[in-house]
Specification:
Blueprint (H helix, E strand, L loop, with lengths): L24 E9 L2 E8 L14 E14 L2 E6 L3 E4 L5 E4 L4 E8 L8
Antiparallel strand pairs: 1-2, 2-7, 3-4, 3-5, 3-6, 3-7
């Protein structure tokens, strides 16, 4: 299944661009570039992404429901409108104790200056 960007120069309501699907995590690409990407993601209740790390910081903003973001073993409860930055190289898990939607933003540029 191809995950294309949203149409440019067209108004949309971010919370309405993807639906909840039973027993699923749904990802809709908003912008995908070599320097980073922005995605809208919906989680049905009880779903989670497997623990992972990323070489880049990840900005998470909850736009519907309530999320649990675990960073290096520390659990954070985020409500609608709240955000958190998952640091680069941190172990993290994103869980849905209740269903929720979020925006995930990863910026890959700028890290070359740190090498």
């Amino acid at each position: 299944m191809e995950n294309k960007e949203l149409e440019k120069s067209k108004v949309f309501i971010i919370v309405e661009i993807l639906e909840y699907v039973p027993n699923s995590v749904v990802i809709k690409t908003i912008i995908r570039k070599t320097t980073g990407n922005v995605s809208a993601v919906s989680f049905d209740s009880g779903e989670a992404l497997t623990e992972k790390t990323s070489p880049f910081d990840t900005f998470i903003q909850v736009i519907d429901g309530e999320a649990e973001i675990v960073i290096n073993g520390v659990s954070n409860r985020l409500l609608v409108g709240q955000s958190i930055i998952i640091p680069a190289d941190a172990r993290n898990v994103i869980k849905a104790n209740v269903r929720f939607k979020m925006i995930s933003t990863i910026i890959k540029s700028g890290y070359e200056d740190m090498i």
